Amino acid sequence: MYIFIAVILAIGIGMAVLLRSPKFLGFAGETVIRRHLSSLPDKHYRVLNDLLIPRSDGKMTQIDHVVVSTFGLFVIETKNYQGLILGRDRDKEWTQILNKRTRHRFLSPVIQNRIHVRALREMLPDIDADCFHSIVVFSNGAKLRTEVTDTHVVNVRDLLRTIRSYTTPKLTEEQITQVIERIAAVDNKDRGSRREHVARIRDLKQGIEKGVCPRCGGQLVLRQGKRGEFWGCSNFPRCRFVRKA
């Protein structure tokens, strides 16, 4: 009996840890978005999920979702975060506030998605810039206080409405087919490459936490600026990496 109870407790604790892990939360958030996007009519919208495509600098960028449609390309970054979300256009890091004692900083999803949009635009130079629409989606449990001009920052419940708000035709059926074929041709489905990409991002974050510049490997130094303290690279001005303190 005691062994049975211990096994049940162990399973319960294991499930609790799993359900709170960033990897599981990210997977759950993307699954919800996929389900929402699948309801878009095939006549006007084609949905591509979990892309890993090359950038012009030789690196890879991972895109959660791209909707290719008559009304342009919707590039979607998902964040399955709860609580109060604070962020502005040029902030390199945003803030998640769960309660008075718990807050968390994370890389700006708007800047992340700008990189994704740029990679797609470089790949599709014949598609006009106004055909690309950037969207960052947070869970419905997030309260958004953001100031952003070039990206839609919305909750899941507002995603489809945001996409459907674009009603001016931009692309022909032939262009849509060509865009999908080009993306499919460069999308890297190799699991090894994807693991390497995720590991590289994790190593960069851990390096910053240890005081190592992710750009050049120099030491991060605490400095005082007009807007308060910040971490800057010791190799300045050769390296201009900065991070909020």
Topology readout:
Blueprint: H1 2-20, H2 22-37, E1 45-54, E2 60-69, E3 72-79, E4 83-88, E5 93-97, E6 103-107, H3 109-123, E7 132-138, E8 142-147, E9 151-155, H4 159-164, H5 173-186, H6 191-209, E10 220-225, E11 228-233, E12 242-244
Parallel strand pairs: 3-7, 4-8, 7-9
Antiparallel strand pairs: 1-2, 2-3, 4-5, 5-6, 10-11, 11-12
Second rung of CATH, namely the architecture of the domain at 22-190: 3-Layer(aba) Sandwich
- Strand arrangement across the biggest beta sheet: 1-2-3-7-9
Low-confidence stretches: 14-27
Large-scale geometry: globular
Total beta-strand segments: 12
CATH topology of the domain at 22-190: Trna Endonuclease, Chain: A, domain 1
What structural class should be given to the helix and strand makeup?
A: alpha/beta
Mean pLDDT: 83
Rg computed from alpha carbons, rounded to a whole number of angstroms = 20 Å
Alpha carbon gap, first and last residue: 52 Å
Largest sheet: 5 strands, mixed
Helix content: 25-40%
Under CATH at level 1, the class of the domain at 22-190 stands as: Alpha Beta
Helix segment tally: 6
Give me the strand/helix succession: HHEEEEEEHEEEHHHEEE
Strand content: 25-35%
What does this structure look like?
The chain is an alpha/beta fold. The chain has a domain at 22-190: Trna Endonuclease, Chain: A, domain 1. The protein has 6 helices and 12 strands. The longest helix is centred in the N-terminal third of the chain and has 19 residues, at 2-20. The termini are far apart. Residues 14-27 have low confidence and may be disordered.
